Each structure stands twice: as C-alpha cells, then as structure tokens.
Amino acid sequence: METRWSQPAGIFELGFFKPGGPENRYLGIWYKNISVKTVVWVANRDLPVPGASPLVLKIADQGILGLFNNISMIWSSNTTTLVNVTAKLQDNGNLVMIGQDSEVIWQSFDYPTDTLLPGMKLGRDLLRGKEWHLSSWKSSQDPASGEWTWGAEKLGYPESKLKQRGLVKFRGRPWGSDLRFMSTM
Length: 185
Fold this sequence. Notes:
There is one protein chain. By secondary structure, this protein is mainly β. The chain folds into 2 domains: 1-111, Agglutinin, subunit A, CATH 2.90.10; 121-185, no CATH class. The protein is built from no helices and 17 strands. Strand 9 and strand 10 form a beta hairpin. The chain is globular. The protein starts with a strand and ends with a strand.
C-alpha cells in the first residue's frame, strides 16, 4: 500500500514511488492528475531505500522533517528549531515546514531536482549561502543526480549555463543584454 498526501487544489501529490521496479523507493512530489507519473521533486534522490522496508515521513524532535525506515533516518530537512512546526504541501508543489507566525523554516523549492516550477529560483543567494540549479536524473529509471545541470551564474550580468559533468555546453547571453542564446558546443 502506498501512502500519498495531496494539497488542497489537488494538483500535486507527495508520496513514495518506485521508478522502474520494486528495488528502490523514493519520497517525491508529482502531478496528481497526469496519467504518466511526472515527478517534479525527489527528497532522497541519491539515497534510495531498497526493498520493502517500512518508510515513515515525520517531524522528529527539534523540528526535523525526516524520512525513516525501521533502522535509521534516510533523509532529513537538516533543520532544527525549538518552535512547533507543521509540514504542508502547497498548491504550487512546494513542500514547506511552517513555524510560528506562518514563518517558512524549510522548503523543497530551495532544493530543486530536475524540474523548475513557478516560484522556484535559479542562481545564488550570497547572503544565505544558497545556490539553486537543476540536475538531470541519472536515467529514466534512476532519479539520482545525473551529469547535466542547468543554472544561473553571475559574472557581471547573470547568465544561464547548461553543463555536462561541470563543463559548459551551452550558455545564454548575459541577462542584462537580450534573451538570445548561444552555444559553446
């Protein structure tokens, strides 16, 4: 039996999925009403849970959102807080942990995988030390981080770059000029 959670608008669903077979399971978010499961975010993409061990997603002590099997914590939000928190899947597909006064303590949009949804960011926040980029799946059956990334870098004006194993394969013109793209292939 699979456990799934939907948000109020019914566009997205959070739950456990097995791409390509029963070997490995992942916690992810996907579109609810598309016949072909279209996963837009994977929590434990590089840490699959093998076999049929029971999985639980819960808020543990000190406000950590964690994915647990019967032995240990597989994945976590890597946050700690002393306030009471709740987890919510928002209408835009963002899984958030909300504290007092509706303050967002953690959000999946800060950890994009291979899909850019409205409201997500690409680039860097130097004040908070965050960087946002997309990373391909390893294969259609394996959501582990692949060799392709897409993001924005700032050297003067920001520009978009597609990289394969860290090598720039395609770059957009600086955002301060125009929106045409040029290839470095």
